[in-house]
C-alpha cells in the first residue's frame, strides 16, 4: 500500500524525536546512534549518499521497521509515502481515493481531490496505466488527504519532471503553512531544496553527520578562495580543501558562538549554499576523511 499512517507516540514537545536509534539487517548496521529532534511545522530534508540509511530511518520512524537499539517517536498521526510509491494497478485514481477514505481515521476528500486536479491526473484511468509521475501524485494525494501531523516522503521528487518538482514542493509548503504539519523528505535533488527545507539531516554510512536548522548551519560555514595554501585563512574545521594550480579553496566550519572573522585580501570569502555544503560533506565521507 502506498501510504502508511501510524498512530501517535509521546515525543515530549517535538514533532519527531530519535534517541540513539539503531537498526541492523542481520549483522550489518544500517543506522547507528542516530539522535535528533524535529520541531513541529518544519520541512526537513534528509540527505545522504546511496545506501546511507535514509529509507531505513524513515521506515523506523514510521513504525514499519522495529528499531534494534534506541528509541524513536512522532507526535500526532504520521503518513509515510515510500520510495516505490506503489498504487493498486487495477484501481483508478478515484478508487484509490475512496480506499483512502475507508482506510484512514481522518480523511479530507477535498484536499486529496484538489491535489489530483492540480496535477491533472485522470481520475478514471487505472493506476497501472498512469505514468510514473502521475502514480506518485496519486500517492501524494492519498498522503495529504489523510491530514497527517507528520508527513514523511521518501524521494518524492524522483520520477517528476522539473516543473512538477517545483510545483510539488510549492504545494507541500502551502500544506505546511496551512496545516502546521511537519514534513521529512529524503532527496538526492539537493539543488532544489533551497527555499524549501528549513532543517537538514545529513546521513553518512548510517550515522547522522550533521543536523539542525539550515540557516544556522549555513551561517557557520564559509568558503574561502585565495593563493595556494595548506591551511585556510581562519580558524575552524576544514570540511573541504581544493588545490588547483596557484589557487586554494576551503570550505570551513567556523567555531560556534564566535563572530565571523574578517579576512584580508587576497583571500575572498563567499557564503555556502546548501548544495555546496552537502556535496562537500558527502565528498569528505566518501574519501574517508570523516564519519
Ligand atoms: N532489507 C534489507 N536487507 C538487508 N540490507 C538492507 C535492506 N535494506 C537496506 N539494506 C542496507 O542498509 C543500508 C541502508 O539502506 P537504505 O535503503 O536505508 O539507504 P538509502 O540512504 O535510502 O539509499 P538510497 O539513496 O540508495 O535509496 C544499505 O547498505 C542497504 O544495502
UniProtKB/TrEMBL annotation:
Residues 16-230 form the ABC transporter domain. The keyword Isomerase does not apply. GO terms for molecular function: ATP binding; ATP hydrolysis activity. It holds the Pfam family ABC_tran. InterPro entries: AAA+_ATPase, ABC_transporter-like_ATP-bd, ABC_Transporter_VariousFunc, P-loop_NTPase. It comes from the Bacteria. Transmembrane segments: none annotated. Keywords: ATP-binding, Nucleotide-binding, Transport. PANTHER family: ABC TRANSPORTER ATP-BINDING PROTEIN ALBC-RELATED (PTHR42939). This is ABC-type transporter. It comes from Saccharothrix espanaensis (strain ATCC 51144 / DSM 44229 / JCM 9112 / NBRC 15066 / NRRL 15764).
Amino acid at each position: 500500500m502506498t501510504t502508511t499512517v501510524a498512530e501517535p507516540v509521546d515525543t515530549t514537545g517535538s514533532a519527531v524525536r530519535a534517541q540513539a536509534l539503531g537498526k541492523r539487517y542481520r549483522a550489518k548496521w544500517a543506522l547507528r546512534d542516530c539522535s535528533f529532534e524535529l520541531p513541529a511545522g518544519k520541512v526537513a530534508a534528509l540527505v545522504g549518499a546511496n545506501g546511507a540509511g535514509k529509507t531505513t530511518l524513515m521506515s523506523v520512524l514510521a513504525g514499519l521497521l522495529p528499531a534494534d537499539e534506541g528509541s524513536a517517536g512522532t507526535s500526532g498521526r504520521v503518513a509515510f509515502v515510500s520510495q516505490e510509491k506503489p498504487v493498486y494497478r487495477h484501481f483508478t485514481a478515484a478508487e484509490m481515493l475512496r480506499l483512502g477514505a475507508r482506510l484512514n481515521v481522518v480523511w479530507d476528500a477535498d484536499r486529496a481531490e484538489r491535489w489530483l486536479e492540480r496535477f491533472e491526473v485522470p481520475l478514471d484511468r487505472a493506476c497501472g496505466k498512469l505514468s510514473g509521475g502521475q502514480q506518485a501524485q496519486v500517492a501524494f494525494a492519498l498522503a495529504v488527504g489523510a491530514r497527517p501531523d507528520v508527513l514523511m516522503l521518501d524521494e518524492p521528487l524522483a520520477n517528476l519532471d522539473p516543473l512538477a518538482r517545483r510545483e510539488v514542493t510549492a504545494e507541500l509548503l502551502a500544506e505546511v503553512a496551512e496545516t502546521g504539519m511537519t514534513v521529512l523528505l529524503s532527496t538526492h535533488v539537493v539543488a532544489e531544496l533551497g527555499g524549501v527545507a528549513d532543517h537538514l539531516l545529513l546521513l553518512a554510512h548510517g550515522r547522522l553527520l550533521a543536523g539542525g536548522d539550515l540557516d544556522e548551519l549555513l551561517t557557520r560555514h564559509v568558503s574561502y578562495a585565495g593563493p595556494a595554501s595548506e591551511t585556510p585563512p581562519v580558524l575552524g574545521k576544514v570540511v573541504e580543501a581544493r588545490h588547483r594550480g596557484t589557487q586554494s579553496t576551503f570550505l570551513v566550519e567556523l567555531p560556534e558562538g564566535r563572530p565571523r572573522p574578517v579576512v584580508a585580501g587576497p583571500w575572498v570569502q563567499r557564503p555556502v549554499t546548501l548544495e555546496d555544503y552537502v556535496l562537500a560533506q558527502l565528498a569528505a565521507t566518501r574519501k574517508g576523511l570523516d564519519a
